[in-house]
Amino acid sequence: MSITLHDVARLAGVSIKTVSNVIHDYPHIRPDTREKVLAAIAELDYRPNLSARGLRSGRSGAIGLIIPDLRNAYFAELADAVMTAAHKRGLYVLIEQMGGADKQAELEILRGPRMQMVDGILYSVLALGQEDAGLLDISTPLVLLGDRIYNGPTDHVTMPNVDGSRLATEHLLSLGRQRILALGAHEDEVIGSAGLRLRGYTEALEAAGVPFRPELVVNVGNWHRFDGAEAMRATMASGISFDGVVAFNDSLALGAMRVVQEAGLRVPDDVAFIGFDDIDETRYSLPTLSTIDPGRAEIAEVAVGWLLERISAEPGSIAPREHETAIRLVQRESTTFA
Amino acid sequence: MSITLHDVARLAGVSIKTVSNVIHDYPHIRPDTREKVLAAIAELDYRPNLSARGLRSGRSGAIGLIIPDLRNAYFAELADAVMTAAHKRGLYVLIEQMGGADKQAELEILRGPRMQMVDGILYSVLALGQEDAGLLDISTPLVLLGDRIYNGPTDHVTMPNVDGSRLATEHLLSLGRQRILALGAHEDEVIGSAGLRLRGYTEALEAAGVPFRPELVVNVGNWHRFDGAEAMRATMASGISFDGVVAFNDSLALGAMRVVQEAGLRVPDDVAFIGFDDIDETRYSLPTLSTIDPGRAEIAEVAVGWLLERISAEPGSIAPREHETAIRLVQRESTTFA
DNA sequence: TTGTCGTTCTCCATCGTTGTAGTCTTCGGC
DNA sequence: GCCGAAGACTACAACGATGGAGAACGACAA
Question: In the structure, how far is the CA atom of residue A29 from the C1' atom of nucleotide D25, in angstroms?
Answer without folding.
Answer: 14
